[in-house]
Task: structure prediction
Amino acid sequence: KIICIDTPEDIIIERVMLRDNITQEEVRQRLRNQMPIKEKKELSDYIIKHDNKIMLLPQIIEIHKELINK
Result:
């Protein structure tokens, strides 16, 4: 099974800049080199929304329950 983490681009950019100590443009270039999130979501069996609004743990628990019951 494929699980996609869907995070808004602005949050991704902020996190990567802090983590890797790089510029916004460097992060954007990295993102351009990756598969677009829309394609990732289309290929995924599950999508976890990670936008600082929806809690992560309930989403993870729900996916876990589904996977162990298959």
